[in-house]
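User: Fold this; tokens only.

Assistant: Input:
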Amino acid sequence: MDTKRVHSVIRTARLLALSFVFAAALCACAMFTGDDPGVRTPPTVWADNMIEYHADEAIKASDPRFESAHVVVVSHSGIVLLVGEVESEDLKAKAAEVAQGVENVRSVHNELTIGGPISLVSRSNDSWLTTKVKTKLIAHGAIDSTRIDVTTENGVVYLMGTVPQDQARYAVEVTQTVYGVEKIVKVFEYTD
């Protein structure tokens, strides 16, 4: 199978997965309504998923050098976080510029690093760190972990969400206790 066909199959699978997420979000719509700015409604979750998908596709299409890069796009209430590795400063800047141009993006936090993609072992370790951090956030009694997204890249943990300042502080304190975390980057919007 040629690479264009593989990419087409992957895009179709992503759209199908996003459709299932949207359907689940609509079913849950009645449970998550209100004026609390920290609670993402199903339409907001859907919009974030679409931002991630469209930004990822647009970045890859903007320059063939992104084929050998590792770029992860995370969106929370229209705030985009870019993490991963690219080969040059101009690609880093281009990724942010392209992401900023995607519909419904309010701002972009460009945390891409210059260098080759990290190994699969490092990515596996990052997934494990994310799991450990999420588990500790859930277990902590004073943190509403549903408001916080956790992303890990090369040992750096990124915490995103719309939370009160005390929640952000607790999340950082808990994350600091997780073995293997090299650095914590806060990408919070505060509700107070």
